[in-house]
Amino acid sequence: MMPQDRYELLAQFIGIWMVFVICIVVCVEGVNFDADCSTNACTEDNTICNPEIALTETCTTPNPPDQCADTNAECVGDPLTCECKTAHFVNKDGACDPNVGLAGTCDSTDSATDQCSVADTTCRNDGAGDKCLCIDTHFSDGTGCQTKVAGLNTTCDGAVSATDQCSTAGTECKDDGTGTDRCLCKPTYYPDGSTCVLRSGVIKVAMLQYMYVVPFIISMMTLLR
Questions:
Q1: What residue intervals traverse the membrane (predicted)?
Q2: DSSP β-ladder status, 81-84 and 73-76
Q3: Contacts of 220 (CB under 8 A, 6+ apart)
């Protein structure tokens, strides 16, 4: 056989091999399938396009990773189902959303109890909008929620800037004069057993101011008639 014939035979062999390889790649990637897995709601499983799976529905294995319809869901559990990924919750629309941190914006109309990520928080309106805030029995230390200090004269942490760490009404955390921080009555209150009572002088001052304001309002209304 002439050298030229050998080169031609080798070229034909290489050509046939390349066609074979291209065919395998195209078939595995699903380009020639009736369904287009990159645009339709389906996932590639070797040579088959399967419909994506809804939340809480049974899935097969953790792979392929995109078999769950929600991009924030994954196939986990026993039995295997499509569930929200870690640090996510199911919102009122049935989709997976990221959990909300302390003081982060939330949706108080959503009944999901795990919407807020920090323990002992709840989604409520603070007057400036819906936020994940500490529940009534706890106060914020900036990063988490701590149990409020119960009882008058109980030791507290004066280094914490929270004004609501003392649970008794009319109290605040301050030095008791001996270098110990305690929950004591505010200046406008006085202790009465286990509670703090508003001083009568404060009420009198408020009433006195009110007595001056009322005649002024009446006079203004008379002039405007």
A1: 9-31, 207-224
A2: antiparallel
A3: none
